[in-house]
Amino acid sequence: MRMTFNQKQNAQTCEELILEFTTKKQPTNPEKIVFTGIGTNDVYNISAPFEDEGELVIAGRVESRESEHSVVYFFVEKNGEWVRREGSPILELQDPFFTRIAGELVVGGVQIFPHPEKEGQLGWRTVFYKGDSITNLEEFAKGPEGMKDLRLIELKDKSIGVLTRPQGEKGGRGKIGWTTIPTLSDLTLDVINHAPLLESQFIDEQWGGANEAHLLSNGKIGVLGHIASFDEEGNRHYYPMIFGFDPETEAFSKMELIATRSHFLPGPTKRPDLIDVVFSGGLVRNANGTAVLYAGISDADAQKIRIVDPFMQFEQ
Q: Are 164 and 185 in contact, with CB atoms under 8 Å apart?
């Protein structure tokens, strides 16, 4: 089936997307990712593995079960377990991600800080680092206060796509925006704040964001993200989703779910309201038409699962 791209999609709810997803080929082979050398802490909301100085590395959010104050460690695999990479920096961030732009590694995550106006509460923003390797990362940009899920991607013409996620007056509970910049030095608060939203992607009661962007063989973009909702009891429900985006026309496809919590193995949860949470960490595409989704589970665990490559349809 050929996927259609439009300037505006009819927003679908989590419930409608789940119903559609049940008719498709389901994920298989869930596996827990084992991290060692972290004491009693949890590792969750991981990146997909990426190469650094000839080694595959995963960036992971490391945190005590009772706290929101986390650090990001870089891990390498040894004998089937992921151990802290010696000599790699520790970043005071949540929810790490990576991309490559102009030949450099770009790593980012969410920085928390005391809220400037609400006493006892936390504020947050996305922070970006770049360098020729993990060892040489240096901070180069900060996103607006209150914005998570800010992502960058180098496009076919070497310009940079910027996926935003404002909340509040512009984005409600959280909607995805898009703009482009010529170079990383053009990534300013003004540019981010003025990025237009993709129209009618989410209903106002639900929210979502981009987690990772993939440049496809035809210059289009495959976006890995999440869509989320509250139920009547106040429990959170997070689902990994994808959509296709054409940077030339700014048209995009409808969203599709690629997994739900029930496809993964049982595991711990940070709080009872977070049981049904799958946080899209990253996607590794395979040559055989499959892909592996790396995900944070219930804010306390990290797993991977095999799926049909969801971006192939946008390359046809």
A: no
CA distance 236 to 206: 10
Extract the tokens encoding 56: 């595959």
Compute CA distances 52 → 75, 105, 125, whole Å.
11, 9, 26
Among 214, 279, 201, 171, smallest CA distance to 17 is for 201
158: left (phi over 0), alpha (psi -120 to 50) or beta: left
Strand ranges for 172-308 from DSSP E: 177-181, 207-215, 221-230, 236-246, 251-252, 256-257, 278-285, 290-297, 301-308
Q: For the stretch 107-121, what's the b/e string if a residue is b when 16 or more beta carbons lie within 10 angstroms of its beta carbon?
A: bbbbbeeeeeeeeee
In this structure, the dihedral spanned by the alpha carbons of residues 176, 179, 184 and 190, taken in order and rounded to 10 degrees, is -90
List, for residues 38-89, the tens digit of each pLDDT value.
999 999 999 999 999 999 999 999 999 999 899 999 999 999 999 999 999 9
Contact 216, 240 (CB under 8 A): no
Nearest to 276 by CA among 307, 310, 233: 233
Q: How far apart are CA 15 and CA 19, in angstroms?
A: 6
Its pTM surpasses 0.90? yes
3-state helix, strand, coil in the chain (%, to 5): 10, 45, 45
What is the rounded CA–CA span in Å between residue 179 and residue 196? 7
**Phi then psi for 81, rounded to 5 degrees?**
-120, 155
Question: CA-to-CA distance for 24 and 13, rounded, in angstroms?
Answer: 17
- Residue ranges and CATH numbers for the domains of the chain are 14-314 (2.115.10.20)
CA-wise closest residue to 41 among 281, 304, 299: 299
